[in-house]
Design brief:
Layout: H1 8-18, H2 20-30, H3 47-61, E1 71-75, H4 81-90, E2 93-98, H5 101-113, E3 120-124, E4 137-143, H6 152-162, E5 163-172, E6 175-176, H7 186-191, H8 200-209, E7 213-219, H9 221-237, H10 239-242, H11 248-266, E8 270-271, E9 273-278
Parallel strand pairs: 1-2, 1-4, 2-3, 4-5
Antiparallel strand pairs: 5-9, 6-8, 7-9
Helix pairs in contact: 3-4, 9-11
């Protein structure tokens, strides 16, 4: 078992997501139980519906690995929406690893309310040091979380350690385009306190180092702009309603930050998609 102190980047992320402002914003605006990028069929589609479509699409890609005997680890599980969907649909046991105690409290409460707490284990922790023994999981799952690591190669190494031979790793992540010019993402990086983002090429190279097989990489980069635009529109429309739970300062910073993501995405500097690899 590997348990390590959080890196500065991860600690900053933990403090942010534990704040009342962030917790209330993500839960009430970003998608409810799901706080990742959605797959949209129209510009006005409900965020929660598009977000659940991402879960369904990812699950369909690895459906042959999902049974009641499957052990799944959800890395950066947020409020646990994906974990509950997998447990409900396939009967598998899901180990939710997430660094925000505020999100984890909601996850445990919702799972209990939905009578899925026997299938969902929620652990306060960090994917740079996964707190489990080697070879415990059949499937590793992550949605839009790995970007928050300052040591993404270490995350891959930890996933490799935690997976059984033949296990799959399926994930999404906001990334920079493979041909992104230097310096153009600074407004985005400053907002999320990062020095860099991953990329399709970066993750391919990390997987190759570990000897993983590339199962599928599906580019949905247009959906990143769709999602951030939809979230910004929702925030603007509900700003007065949210003012009692989310500070004006936070909402203003969020509107500006979402704008940076949208602008960079429209210029082709950002990427997003579904990546799946298999451990030999």
């Amino acid at each position: 078992m590997v348990v390590e102190e959080y890196s500065p980047v991860v600690k900053t992320t933990q403090v942010y997501y534990n704040s009342d402002d962030a917790d209330n914003f993500y839960y009430h605006v970003w998608g409810g139980e799901d706080i990742h990028i959605g797959l949209y069929e129209g510009p006005k589609e409900d965020i929660a519906i598009a977000s659940q479509r991402t879960v369904e699409t990812m699950a369909n890609q690895c459906a042959s690995q999902l049974t009641p005997n499957t052990r799944v680890i959800d890395l950066g599980s947020g409020y646990g929406g994906s974990a509950r969907w997998l447990a409900r649909k396939y009967g598998c046991d899901v180990f939710c690893l997430n660094l925000s105690e505020a999100q984890n409290i909601r996850n445990r409460d919702i799972s209990e309310t939905q009578k899925l707490d026997s299938k969902i284990t929620v652990v306060d922790g960090n994917f740079e040091g996964i707190p489990t023994e080697n070879g415990q999981f059949d499937l590793a799952w992550s949605q839009d979380a790995i970007l928050h690591s300052g040591h993404r190669e270490k995350v891959f190494q930890e996933v490799d350690r935690a997976l059984k031979p033949g296990g799959n790793f399926i994930f999404t992540d906001p990334m920079q385009a493979d041909d992104c010019p230097s310096g153009v993402l600074q407004p985005v990086l400053d907002r999320i306190h990062l020095e860099s983002l991953g990329s399709f090429q970066f993750y391919r190279e990390e997987a190759k180092k570990l000897g993983w097989e590339e199962v599928a990489i599906i580019d949905h980069s247009d959906q990143l702009v769709n999602h951030y635009t939809r979230v910004r529109d929702e925030l603007l429309a509900r700003r007065t309603e949210l003012s009692g739970n989310v500070s004006e300062e936070y909402m203003e910073r969020m509107i500006q930050g979402l704008g940076h993501w949208i602008d960079a995405g429209n210029q082709g500097y950002l990427a997003w998609g579904i990546l799946q690899f298999r451990k030999p």
